[in-house]
Every structure is written in C-alpha cells, then in structure tokens.
Amino acid sequence: MHRFFVNPEDIADQQVHFSPAESRHIERVLRLRPGEIVTVFDGRGWEYRVQLLERGSSGSLKGQILDREFRDRESPFKLALVQGIAKGEKMDTIIQKAVEIGIDSIHPVITEHTVVQLEGPKRQQRQERWQEISRQACKQCHRNYVPPVFPLVNMESFLEQHASQPILMLYEGEQKCTLKQVLQNELLPRQEQPWYLMVGPEGGFSKREAALAREKGVLLAGLGPRILRTETAGLIAAGIILYELGDLG
Question: Strand 195-199 vs strand 15-17: parallel, antiparallel, or unpaired?
Fold first, then answer.
C-alpha cells in the first residue's frame, strides 16, 4: 500500500489534507484515483488508513480517515548522529541511511575540516532539504516518527550545549580505545540514556578538536586499523551500536 506523510496540523475532522507536493505525487506520478486506500503517517507515531476523496472547492487533495493506530517502530536505545558537514550529496546519503537504520535525531556541525560553506539563507534552505530527506526516508522504511534535523552549529557550540550528556566521538587518532570497548564498558551500562555519536567530515576531526572534546568529557574511540570515509564511519558505528543495544537484527 502506498504511504504518505501529512503534518499533524493537516489532520482534522476525520480527514487528512495532503500537501501540494504529496498531492502531485499521488495524482500525477502514481495516478491514484478517488476511492483508493493509502497509508498516512504524521511523524509522531500515528499511522492512518485513508481513502482518497475528490478534490474539494479549496483545490486541496483530501482523504477520509478509516482508522488509525499508534505504531511504534523506534529503537529502545536512543542514538543521535552528530555529523560534520560532508561535501556534495554525501550528506544527503548519510541522513537518509541514518534514518533507515534507526538514528533518533541528526545534528549537523561545522568543524575545522569542513569545506562546505553555508551562510545566510543557505543554512535554512539546506536544513529544510535535509529534513525533507528525513521524511522521505521514513516513508520508505516505515518509521512513523520523523527524526528532526537540527540547525547547523559549530562543534564548540554543540559541545557547550550538550555538556551534561554522554557523547562518543569517532577519531582515527585514538589508538587505545576501540568502539567495542566503549560499547561494553560505557554504552551498555548506560543504555537508558540517550547518546550522541560524533563523526567528522572528510579529513576527520583535527587534533585540537579531539583534545577539546576529551577536555569536555567526550569519549573517543577508533574503528580499527583502516581509515573509513565519513559516509561510512558513522553508519557502520551506528549500525553496530543499534545491533547491540537497539532493535537491528
């Protein structure tokens, strides 16, 4: 059954009001007709079985709610991804795949090795684009909760804002502590808390950033002898963590 996102504020009086983008997709791409049944989710856990209606006088496409159910497909372990901005379409891919595997929220950060320059209106536009990617990924993977993509901040600001919360930084320069050790010694005993997984952009984190993070109480861990790309490292680490503590597998 086809699946669509509708904002909670567009659900009222046993009807849903589809956005212009979803309306175009329903009518022009999928060529669905009034009377057909689709699934709608609101990003807050609710899933609806909806029958498409004729367009109203307002011109918006509507649907009649037949029934609804709260479907929780979220991981019991809450893991947020703190991702250094990657170049090109890599960031889009990272967000899409992170949502698919169960990441709870996404926090883009600017680091010393960040190449992408996002100033003024571009910041807001890029955040909106990334949030839409999160929504579209939820449509595909049948999540009913849409992970938020937070506004872009620099790494130092993020560490200040989350000083009291457990954070794990992936750092290729960390030779003594591995992800496996952190998982067993830190994450497993404290799995009732939400954790933040920090991943650098191309080039990783600088030595200064790693030292600053350590000063702030951040745990640093390596991923083994090979250097992974930014679009690989975070997803691999998140997959391992959510396999052990979440609902993957």
Answer: unpaired
